Amino acid sequence: MHLKRGFCIMSETKIDVVLPCYNPSGDWVTIINKGIERLRGMMPDKRLHLIVVNDGSSRNITAEGIERFKLTVADSEFISYETNRGKGYALRKGIGATTSSMVVYTDWDFPYDAESITTVIHKLVEGYDVVVAARTKSYRRHADLNAFRSFMSIASRFLNRVVLRMKFNDAQGGLKGMSARGKEIFLNTTIDGFLFDTEFIHNASRIKGLKMCEIKANVREGVHLSPMGLKVLRREFPNFIKIIFS
After folding, report:
1. Contact partners, residue 59, CB within 8 Å, separation at least 6
2. What are the C-alpha distances in Å from 152 to residues 20, 63, 90, 160, 219?
3. What is the pTM of this model?
4. Whose CB among 65, 80, 190, 202 lies 3.0–4.6 Å from 54's, allowing a Cys bridge?
5. What is the Cα–Cα distance from 53 to 30, expressed in whole angstroms?
6. Orientation angle between helical segments 196-205 and 87-96, nearest 10 degrees
7. Can you say whether the dihedral through the CA atoms of 88, 243, 231, 162 is positive or negative?
8. How confident is the model at residue 161 (pLDDT cuts 50, 70, 90)?
9. What is the pLDDT of residues 189-211, one digit of tens each?
């Protein structure tokens, strides 16, 4: 709060919302706009600045679509590069471009309900450095999961708890919040693929005095998740070993 010409003016609270995007389906501009506007309607006292990162998509993102995004989505910016690098890389690009002291990231189609995302933001306002969204039973009930992806979700929680001894074992939830201090930790991660979330939460958990918390997050009904196969498991195994010995 600051004073100006005898009036008491509340300083605006700005939060950067970062969405990585790879080969989006359907009318992605409208989907993104509806998602961010719903959040803005629920938090009129906050300024939600949107940053979308196109992670080298090979389909459905055109120059015309990007121009339409810029004209349609208020208070936003669009980052794009040609080669697909992975979600971790895309988020480091987007989070590296943020300017506020609070950052939230999720997927481009806003798979979590707006209430869960606003809860993450409220926790950041309360002073937490890292907010982890743990998936509830709605993840398996509402999300379109293939059998292997469901297995990977259960297995990753087990390994995080037993091998990495992490306090928050649901690291792959796809919804996180961070303060400026949390942002610094995230930008020092190195994994581009599936396990970037685990690396981030594992590294943050080792820092004394860092304020971390977990919230329960609900997935929207009908959310479609991309299929996952053994190729991902083979690619990410060295990354898991890397986290163990980091």
Report:
1. 23
2. 21, 36, 22, 12, 18
3. 0.87
4. 80
5. 16
6. 60
7. negative
8. confident
9. 999 998 999 999 999 999 999 99
